[in-house]
Amino acid sequence: MKAKAGVGVLGVALLAVLISIALSTWSRQPATAKPSEQPINFPHNVHVEQYKIDCQYCHSEARRSEYAGIPSVTRCMGCHRITAADRPEIKKLTEYATKGEPVPWVRVYKMPEFTYFPHKAHVRVGLTCQECHGAVEKMTTVAARTGPSPVHDALSVVGLRGNAPPLTMGWCIDCHREQNRTKDTKAPLDCVTCHH
Ligand code: HEC
Ligand code: HEC
Ligand code: HEC
Ligand code: HEC
Ligand code: HEC
């Protein structure tokens, strides 16, 4: 009896340690991701996976413009005037709202100026956001690509982060070729459509 209870206590203690490690990696700020530090620690996973908010509710320009767009503070405050209003990260958000300033989000995906990438064509043809941006719904920070992924966390620990989707010319062209071959699309392969 006594031995059994001992194992039980040990089991509970072990479980508690594992949970606290899991929680701390979950909420951990990206260690070396300097350029990806955001002014507010906005968790995509909470909004998309837990609360089922559609990508395009926030990135509402994606299907009609060149840009996907980042939601305004007003849009955030639609929920956060009340939701979690007492949390530190939401207090920061409220501060921007009160000052009437936009949140200075750090840009993550950026093509050089001499290229033309329109979201509209890609979203309308039925590509998912994830095909190019990865599993954003699992990320705590888009830039750092952290989040509850044991493999990724292990890599982070030894100083390696997963690669961002390769935003190279070859990446664009490979997909254009592939799509034109397998589907009835006319994705451009000529220089001037992407460079003007
Ligand atoms: C509740 C609003 C909200 C929802 C829902 C949302 N996002 Fe975001 N997204 C943001 C905000 C705010 C940022 C800027 C902060 C950041 O980069 O984390 C952002 C940033 C991004 C970025 C990086 C932009 C850059 O700077 O290059 C990508 C890519 C992105 N979101 C994709 C998605 C995808 C895909 C989904 C659905 C799976 C989604 N988002 C759902 C609010 C949202
Ligand atoms: C449709 C409603 C909705 C919108 C719009 C929304 N959020 Fe949220 N947000 C939530 C909910 C629900 C939670 C989870 C709160 C909880 O844990 O109880 C949350 C959690 C958060 C958290 C984590 C708070 C914490 O520390 O636990 C942050 C930060 C946040 N939101 C920022 C934003 C920002 C920035 C925007 C605008 C880009 C935004 N939210 C738009 C509903 C929303
Ligand atoms: C075919 C690949 C592709 C698809 C599909 C795609 N994106 Fe993007 N996204 C990009 C590239 C490339 C950039 C950088 C564009 C630039 O710098 O001109 C970008 C930039 C962004 C940005 C930051 C700047 C901006 O445009 O406002 C956000 C936010 C974003 N994408 C969200 C989304 C969402 C949400 C979806 C799905 C509705 C989506 N993307 C679908 C490739 C893609
Ligand atoms: C995952 C696949 C995929 C990737 C990656 C991709 N594209 Fe495309 N792109 C397409 C498809 C499919 C079309 C054709 C849409 C159609 O026929 O309506 C297209 C169309 C376009 C068009 C034509 C738009 C128009 O209005 O006709 C441009 C410009 C373009 N892509 C630029 C880029 C650039 C630049 C990149 C890299 C940064 C890129 N694409 C990456 C699949 C992709
Ligand atoms: C589908 C879109 C697309 C097409 C078609 C395309 N490019 Fe590009 N190109 C890009 C993108 C996106 C970049 C930026 C890539 C980067 O920063 O790594 C780029 C970069 C370049 C660069 C800078 C060097 C480099 O490789 O980064 C040159 C030069 C260039 N392109 C020339 C051309 C020429 C010449 C053609 C026609 C034969 C062409 N491109 C066709 C999208 C395209």
Question: Which features would summarize this protein structure in a list?
Answer:
single chain; 196 residues; mainly alpha; 2 domains; 10 helices; 48% helix; 0% strand; binds heme C
Ligand set: heme C
H/E element string?
Answer: HHHHHHHHHH
Q: Total number of helical segments?
A: 10
Biggest pleated sheet: none
Structural class of the helices, strands and pairings? mainly alpha
Any idea what the radius of gyration is?
21 Å
Distance from N terminus to C terminus (CA atoms, Å) equals: 78 Å
Q: Rough shape?
A: elongated
Number of domains: 2
Question: If you average the pLDDT, what whole number results?
Answer: 78
- Helical content stands at 40-55%
Low-pLDDT stretches are 1-7, 13-35, 144-149
Strand content: under 5%
The total count of strands amounts to 0
In short:
The protein is mostly helical. The protein is built from 10 helices and no strands.
Structure report:
With 196 residues, the protein is mainly α. The protein folds into 2 domains: 2-70 and 105-111 and 120-162, no CATH class; 166-196. It contains 10 helices and no strands. The protein has helices spanning 2-27, 44-50, 55-58, 73-80, 88-99, 119-124, 129-133, 150-157, 169-182, 191-194. Mean pLDDT is 78; it is low at 1-7, 13-35 and 144-149. Residues 55-56, 59, 62, 67-70, 109-111, 117, 119, 122-123, 127, 129, 131-133, 167 line the site of one heme C.
